[in-house]
């Protein structure tokens, strides 16, 4: 995180609400990911924060990208355009996976010209891909346990393991090529056994497909879910990495490419939100601060991401447990009912929240006419 003094200066210069992205922190996260998971190529999940400047910094650091819509695809595609045609094909699989298992016909038709790598998890999708994007490489998304994740995804996506080989053979019969398997253990997974189980499940599907005559799979995508260090209960990344490395080395030969789709891990710690106190009241005996950013803006992750953020004041002083409200007229717009903040903050004083880089500005809305936080980039 940037020094407090610098954050205050930025807020003075740009006004609030403000969202500060530290690009050194993005590079540090990418480097740590590579260091602890040397066999794994990181495909940054653009949905966590699709800011093109973030994509550029991670691209320059060596990252590839997981996209889930055509607009996200185009943010990354910027970098392909200028390559010679010959390099483009290899490049695209090395650099992009379209990891949304359900795609509209129109999306597939558009994707087909890029011959992209796309995920699927059901028979209907095979028929759609066959009709609209037959030049794609396919990756089968498996349903895996999401127990203990902050955000659960397994109810919406993933083929049951009992059905996986049938899907692979069906795609093969349709003349499509299944390049490998993927899964997602759930976002902010602090239960590291999810990864161990999922990698073992994928190894079993590889084996069954091979036994039934399908030998073209050459990649395993271990998805996202790598936790951000929101608090001290999150065990260190290197512990998770040690488990993952042990399983992939034990179960997957060296010629199988290993991909991952970290979103939160790359950006969460790189973002800081700064807001300003615009009102102050005592309700039912409790001190309430009203600030100019809320759950319809940068703090949208409180609703969509089930993430609780903490607020801190730049000013020090005797604290009380306070409520912090966002600026809209909706009573849902509560940042926190229990923040320990100085009791004597005044209108115009600033608050900040750390580790808010993921699933925050990405899902900001213009509800009630309040503008999104201004984004500033440091150490670019
Ligand atoms: C959201 C998502 C990710 C990123 O997940 P994180 O928990 O942020 O790492 C990766 N892959 C897929 C398919 C996703 O939907």
List the main descriptive attributes of the protein structure presented here.
380 residues; alpha/beta; Lyase, Ornithine Decarboxylase, Chain A, domain 1; TIM Barrel; 2 domains; 8-stranded mixed β-sheet; 8-stranded parallel barrel; 12 helices; 24% strand; binds pyridoxal-5'-phosphate
Task: Provide structural commentary.
The chain is of the alpha/beta class. The chain folds into two domains: 4-18 and 269-378, Lyase, Ornithine Decarboxylase, Chain A, domain 1 (Beta Barrel), CATH 2.40.37; 23-268, TIM Barrel. The chain has twelve helices and 18 strands. The protein has helices at 4-14, 23-36, 52-61, 70-77, 85-95, 105-112, 123-132, 161-173, 193-211, 237-251, 264-267, 301-304; strands at residues 18-22, 40-45, 64-67, 96-98, 117-120, 137-141, 149-151, 177-182, 187-189, 219-221, 257-260, 271-283, 286-291, 312-313, 319-325, 334-342, 350-353, 374-378. Strands 1, 12, 13, 14, 15, 16, 17 and 18 form an eight-stranded mixed beta sheet that branches. Helix 7 links the parallel strand 5 and strand 6. Helix 2 (23-36) crosses helix 3 and helix 9 (193-211) packs parallel to helix 10. The chain is elongated. Bound molecules: pyridoxal-5'-phosphate (PLP). Residues 45, 47-48, 66, 99, 184, 187, 223-226, 261-265 line the site of pyridoxal-5'-phosphate.
